Amino acid sequence: MEWRDEGIVLGTRKHGETSVILEVMTHAHGRHLGMVRGGRSRKQQPTLQPGNLVEVLWRARLDEHMGTFQAEALELNAARLFDSASAIFAIQTLAAHLRLLPERDPHTSLYEALKVMIAHLDQPQAAGELVVRFEVLLLEELGFGLDLARCAATGTRDDLAYVSPKSGRAVSREAGAPWHDRMLPLPAFLGAGAGVRADIAALNEAFRLTGFFLTRSVYEPRGIVAPEARSGLLGALARHFSRHDIANGNNAA
Question: What percent of the chain has pLDDT over 70?
Answer without folding.
Answer: 95
